[in-house]
Amino acid sequence: MSLRVIEWSTGTVGRHAIAGIDAHPDLELVGVWVSDPAKVGRDAGELAGLGRDLGVAATSDVDELLALAPDCIVHTAMTDDRVVESIGDLTRFLEAGVNVVSSGPVVLQFPHGILPASMIDQIEAAAHSGGATLHVNGIDPGFANDVLPLSMTSLAQRIDEVRCMEIADYSTYYQPVVMRDLFGFGQPLDYTPVLLTPGVLGMAWGSVVRQLAAGLGITLDEPLVERVERVAADRDYSTVSVDVPKGTMAALRFEVAGQVDGVDRIVLEHVTRTHPDQCPQWPKPAEGDGSYRIVVSGEPHMQVEFSHHGEHGDHNVSGMIVTAMRLVNAVPAVVAAPAGLATALDLPLVTGRGLVAGAAHRVVPAP
Predict the structure, then answer these.
(1) Residues in domain 2,4-diaminopentanoate dehydrogenase C-terminal (predicted)?
(2) Is the N or the C terminus of the chain less surrounded, counting Cβ atoms within 10 Å?
């Protein structure tokens, strides 16, 4: 029997989630939530750009959707600029007995040591009250810096440092709020954007560092270490999200490091350009315009370069797809999981079961 699923949003990630739910043999799309009044009443297939109707009309009525008693909500709404409010939304779903997979707030990927224990307890209480499970994930924070590096460490004899890197050109990344307000691209260098307010990097990506530490069984020094390097534009140019005048912030490199006795042991590093020619001295992808690089230093030294690109678009398009599909493909595991807040450490192996082209009709039962 298929699991009944609601998609929460139809934006840059949500539209791909709708396509993924429709393609998944174990899932049935039964509802879609939208925030834009102009989208209310429109078919999910149209909103996802599928070129065909799915027979599911979008609505902004939360009660109407919860009344459908779905097995799971795939929540891909923007949360970066409304963290507290979105936690309230997720808590409401859990209390209503609905399992949730969500792309944010990213701090909930592994909130221990980041959020107050009282807040985590409230989420857990809501989950247990409704008998539901919440899993927050994606690609980064998510697979590229939890399952992938932890799997690599299973090959190690000695681990000196685990470094998870995103190396990307964001010039084609369409998220104006994220690019200008959160990152600060196109803003004066003396302006402090939200992301670079002291402590915010450690909160946003500290969950990554702390989850890896938990997976490796180590206790980190407190607090986590934040390192930031910003570079100004050498000319005027534009990205799809923001204009970048000469002299304003155009490139950003940051690290969030977990140390043991003052030595870096787990490092999350982002190298973000808004033009491919910037900062040639910084790490570059092995191919294409973006990649994730995992480096495990020790015995042996190991490195994996993980890149992706869309069939009909660049790495920023495929970045939305992999974020959406990490959530969609996790739905069966999350529905089957015990009630509560489930991290990547709690779930079994999530695969693309049932998605092999032309083979869906030959899917065999899971063991």
Answers:
(1) 145-351
(2) C
Closest CA to 100 of 126, 132, 124: 132
Whether 102 and 157 share a structural domain:
no
* Global confidence as pTM: 0.92
Task: Render 354-365 in DSSP notation, one character per residue.
Answer: T-STT-GGGPPP
Q: Mean pLDDT, the chain, as a whole number? A: 94
Other beta carbons less than 10 A from residue 356's beta carbon = 10
Residue 315: pLDDT over 80: no
Task: List residues bridging with 226 in a β-sheet.
Answer: 256
Q: Do 11 and 93 reside in the same domain of the chain?
A: yes
pLDDT of residue 365: 54
Does 349 map to a domain? no
Question: Residue 313: its pLDDT value, please?
Answer: 66
Cα distance between residue 63 and residue 274, in whole Å: 41
CA separation for the pair 105, 137 (Å, rounded): 9
Q: 182 and 296: one domain?
A: yes
Q: Which residue has the tokens 């009044």?
A: 37
**Residues spanned by the domain of 125:** 3-139+320-341
d(CA 13, CA 76) in angstroms, rounded, equals 6
